[in-house]
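Teaching note: in complex prediction, the entire set of molecules is handled at once rather than each chain in isolation. The prompt given to students was simply: 'Predict the structure of this complex.' The entities are:
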Amino acid sequence: MKAHRKKKLSIILFIAVGLSIAIGLSLFALSNNIDLFYTPTQVAAGEVTPGQRIRVGGMVKEGTVEHNQDELEVSFITTDYSHDVQVLYTGILPDLFREGQGIVAEGMLTSAGVFQASRVLAKHDENYMSAEVRSALESAGVDSDGMSSGAY
Amino acid sequence: MWLWFSKLGSPRWFYELSGKWLPWLYAAMVVFMAVGLTWALLFVPADYQQGETIRIMYVHVPVASISLACFPLMAVAGTITLVWRMKLADMVAKCVAPIGAWFSGLALLSGAIWGEPIWGVWWTWDARLTSMLIQFFLFIGVIALRSAIESQDAAAKACAILAIVGAINVPIIKYSVEWWNTLHQPASRISMDPMAPNPPEIWVPLLIMIAGVYLFFIITLLLRTRNEILVRERRSKWVQDLVRKG
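The expected output is the structure of the full assembly:
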């Protein structure tokens, strides 16, 4: 390779590597802002001020979903399996909402420590399989938690 | 190897060789697309969680993964333009930008159509979606930059630099779902076991679709580049002979 080409190539490499490091460091510094939601552990650690509009994400804890019979009011606990957050929501839930499902709730923490959601989104995990295989697995008694915990 | 490199840089040689490849590429694309689309739309079983909505994946994943290949390709072509001043590299860089913009746009659109029924929103500002939107704008930016600069050489250099800088976004898109918590799911691990998550009955047709869409991408890129060669070399003898021959 000729000398001037070598020089040009090294300048390009230098710029690319330098910029990557700069961008990498800024993204690392901003990672709390880039995260879409707070985990229940972060909420429990007091990282969230009551009244601040935030998102909380976790799994819907088994056996905690309570629907109000007359209104669209629902209450459930979202968990990351080390801490829990109680969520209250009035509105239509996504089709995928169910116990054991990953969800993201938008809203704010009340001073009582309950999360008042204005919108609930369902997360979809990275596992795909046919309904037949799934029901065959379930009838064979395979633990379903082992599969869906990857979603979170 | 250097002889091969400089030969590949010759637009005429590339024009003649790609003309020979195209019929085979067309044939392969038709086969892969026909098999892949039929399989994905008619024979893939409905998913246990999302039902028939899973079929959107067979378009979304191929277009998204190809859009991620476009920027590195443009950056490599840009580096060759800056360092070796190969004419053909800049033609490829120019032709890949609109294709990359289209594929990014289609990935965003098919993702939104999937997100509405599954997540409950068309759009959210999570890291994967936002970094993909940035890539879409970067492609538009590269196209705009090229048309804003009149001198072909200056435009080639400016676009090459923007392509190299913008390629830093590609690993960010790829790993966004691992570095940060997002609404978008992480990449799936495929399984050989038919009774496990992500079994062959789901990913084999996806691989066929990826191959088919890749062939479509290569064909589109070759056609655009051939067209660009004819435009830029219109004063050369071989192009004028070609035109006269009819």
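Point out the following to students. Residues 21-42+50-245 of chain B form one domain. The two ends of chain B are 35 Å apart (CA to CA).
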